[in-house]
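Worked problem 6 (solution included).
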Amino acid sequence: MELRSPGVGRVLRMAVEVGAQVERGAELMVIESMKVEIPIKAAAAGRVKEIHVKVGDHVQRNRILAKIE
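Solution. The predicted structure is:
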């Protein structure tokens, strides 16, 4: 499962690392957009397979942020 950016913003903080087991709804990272913090949450339980961004990265809408398997 791919997690994508809901909009344009900057990665403010990360809450997980590759290999972490997550439950549905767990916060994976936070994106800041126009001074609003947007939590990116796991849509399903699984293991974080890949993270494609790091803190400080600017992201565009629909960019792949992470993959969960």
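Discussion: The chain has a mean pLDDT of 96.
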